[in-house]
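From the pipeline queue, job 12 of 40. The input is one protein chain; the requested action is below.

Action: predict structure.
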Amino acid sequence: VGNIGIITAKKGVGKTACLVHIATDKLFRGRQVIHVSFAADTCHIVSWYEDIFSEIARRFNLDSAMEVHQEIIKHRIIMNFNQEGIRLSRVLKSVESMVKDGNFSADTIIVDGYDFTKITAEQLSEVKKFAESYNLAIWFSVTLGEGKKEKVYDQQGMPLLLKGLTEEVAIIVCLIPEQDHIRLKLVKDHDSPVLDDLHLKLDTRTLLIVRENS
């Protein structure tokens, strides 16, 4: 806790699904989650939560699935913002109000869809201090270049968009699309840049993270 994590990939690869998976895992552990979305409509986010919960309940033959579902959604709040004309500091203030004044003691914040082309190192440092102040883990999704031929990684596998922004970030995971799944590759783990296949993949049908045989 007190750390920033980033899930990064090109548009449509599965960043939101991966973040919802992280959030759902926290909810099953009895934790509270705030999901901050910059999408025009959050209906698809709710659908992802429902689909992932249903698949987990089916896969593990969850007893009293409906009761469990009703209990865990009490611990999730979805907040929606328009990217245009809003500063990241204002978003943090809104989250702070929810945590302090709303008595919602979240320990994980999901920030989904924020445009990282507009963020500065100073703003990310502010986010880091906020995470430390409230003992939070904050996860961002970061969308890389749109063009298929556009270079998005440096020679070490680090996303070029994050150049100059990685000092405050603890974990960076890249989603790499393969033929029938999406591979998760760790490119930063706290103090050290790495290039490590996590032997995890995102099932494109169920949206669940599964472990590969190493």
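Job complete. The CA atoms of residues 8 and 142 lie 5 Å apart.
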